[in-house]
Amino acid sequence: PQSSEEAKAFVNAFLKRSMPRKKDEAIQDILTRKAVVLEHYCKKKPKQKRKKPKGFTAKQRRELRLFEIEPEQQRYAIFLPLHELWKQYIRDLCHGLKPDAQPHMIQSKLLKADLHGAIVTVTKSKCPSYVGITGIILQEFKHVFKIITKEDKLKVVPKLNNVFSLEIDGFISYIYGSKFQFRASERSAKKFKLKGTIDL
User: Fold this and answer.
1) Which of 2, 51, 77, 147 has the fewest beta carbons under 10 Å from its own?
2) Hey, which residues does 145 pair with through a beta bridge?
3) Domain count for the chain
4) Domain span at residue 155?
């Protein structure tokens, strides 16, 4: 059993710990009352910043050769099913590509559509060697298309200074590469102007 002095010292220390904002005089004043309401202070936990998972850097992607297509895979016939899937995707996107569909509505949807699997042809270019290249788009980057031709050759065609034509169900659309220098993911949110200067 504790003596009255020890008990008093314990209570004083306990109250001081429990009510750190109160002065000694205020605590003594509280002791004269029959009931004591203890204060409770929650310690604020520091907010931990969530670390976003980082993807590979451009250097790491090159080292891992993530975007390289192996030579044995560079065959036109392999990607024909991809083209058929792309055509179905565009038909669903444009609600069937009906004859009475408005061309500018289809054009606006094609500008934002994913072009992987589309067959395109270079119709105009400042570099004559690019004109006439036709094939399936295998990869789209910000500045270039990677196209596989019917001769099983992988061509890297820059968008800048080139005009591409794209045909599906009799509807022909033209892509002006100089105005099309975006990644596929960026294009989906991009607002294209209906009128603008057209140049190579």
Assistant:
1) 51
2) 140, 157
3) 1
4) 74-189
**Buried-state track 48-57, b at ≥16 Cβ within 10 A, e below 16:** eeeeeeeeee
CATH number of 154's domain:
2.30.30.210
pLDDT beyond 80 at 70: yes
12 within some domain: no
Q: What does the alpha-carbon distance between residue 29 and residue 17 come to, in Å, rounded to a whole number?
A: 16
pLDDT tens sequence across 82-134: 999 999 999 888 887 777 777 778 888 888 889 999 999 999 999 999 999 99
Is the pTM value of this prediction over 0.85? no
Note whether residue 79 is domain-resident. Answer: yes
17-44 pLDDT per residue, tens: 777 777 777 777 776 765 656 555 566 7
- State the greatest distance between any 2 C-alpha atoms of the chain, in Å, as a whole number: 105
